[in-house]
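Training component of the fellowship. As part of building independent skills, the fellow (R.M.) carried out the full modelling exercise for a liganded target. The chosen ligand was zinc ion. The inputs are recorded below so that the supervisory panel can assess the work.
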Amino acid sequence: MSQRRCRAIARMSLFIALAPAMAPLAAQLPDAAALKDEAFRNIEARADRLGRISDAIFSYSELGFQEVNTARLLTDLLEEEGFLVERGVAGMPTAYRATYGSGSPVIGLMADFDCVPGASQRPGVLSHDPLVEGAPGHGEGHNTNPPTVIGAALAMRDLIDRYGISGTIVLYGGPAEEVVASRGYMVNAGLFEGVDVVMDAHIGTGFGTSFGLNNSAIVSVQWTFEGVQGHAASPWTGKSALDGVEVMNTGMNYLREHLPLDMRFHYVITDGGEQPNVIPAKATVWYYFRQRGYEALVDLLDKARGVASGAAEMTGTTVSERILSGSWPINGNQALAELLQSNVEAVGMPDWSDADVRFAEGFQRAMGKTVTGLPNEVSPIRESRQGSSSSDAGDVTWNVPFARLSFPSQAAGALSNHHWSAAIAVATPMAHKGIVVGAKAFAGTMIDLVTDPARVRIIREDFDRQTEGVTWQTLIPEGAEPPTFLNTEKMARWRPLLEPFHYDPDSPRTLLQEWGIQYPPSGGR
Ligand SMILES: [Zn+2]
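Fellow's submitted model of the complex:
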């Protein structure tokens, strides 16, 4: 048994031993402002640790459903800190739920942690410099999300222990967000039942939150065509499954003209055969469909089904469909967002150092962007609008009051998300400061919720109003298994090449020191 786990158990037994003496302690509960001061000091004391966790996840560079090292690091840490950890929840080996405390309110905290293909990049370096050419990388900065919620959760745990506060913290590990694949299954498995609110951490260039309908509903579908293998020099012997895929894609691109403007679909051919002289017996195409609402999305999916079966008929092949996942758009709760925003405003922006600002300016200049440095004001709360992106967090938001916090661990200047340039800032000292303020905003909001239960009721009333007349239903077919096969082959290829770069969060040196990277880079101004 680890030393830390011993301590966790010791703490629990201490708690039990002291339980009868808790009542007078609870009566001495400081007011919310004093509790927040205590929580913020707690988070600052752990700031270095939180940054190292973020950097370790960055170094693992794990694609969706293959976040093995990431999930191990986070679940081991939470277990050692005394949380009840359930691994492999809802049929996904890298998904977890970690719980601490008891009673109401039940506060969920959620964080994505997967990366994206082809975005490998040395952090803090202002030109394309992959750790491993072509490998996955944190080109959206999801590495910063888990430490932000963990920082808040540990601070809250310490307050619960010290003052006998009623309240339950539930941390959700969110694998495979980039393939929008995990949260729908977690909702369907009942993992959010009995939860009063869920707050989600997402890295951004600003610090703030929003409410209302955001982004698009999405469904992720693969069609596999099957034909007859043969010699391509005497092609009358075979039936090409790839022809089925190509005719389907052609049909879909003709359909595109006649679809509403708020609709998007995109595809990749994940299996198009082996070599030109062998007629492929099997071929698979993978589509994402996006539209604002559920009904319109299902209508679009039905149209695509017609195109798929038409393509099979035209090419003499057969076709089968597998829905991998789907999600409704995000529906942010206004009352919760306002509470979270009040804490964002109380915490304020990080105290950026001269080095942080020089780094950001150098980054923006190197990317050919307007040089704006780093923001010094928090972002005002805003009502969302429905854009064309999607998140599998969407399904959670129709089941539990939800707010997403954008925390400032990214510097403006990246050429695009899902691009190596978006991985430059996210494992540097400025990213670490964003994690700290994000954790404080979450902790402050949790303190408001546990010290004033009326807030939970107001948030629930707002949720009921927002969802009135709407019946959420999953886009995932009954009995479907999470597509945990995704990225298996890719990570089998990349993991051994990335392993030499794995960063140990217990190292006496920072990630940038380990990799010999200067911060800010010379020529940053
Ligand atoms: Zn993301």
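The panel noted the following from the submitted structure. Confidence is low (pLDDT under 50) at residues 1-25. DSSP finds 16 helices and 15 strands in the chain.
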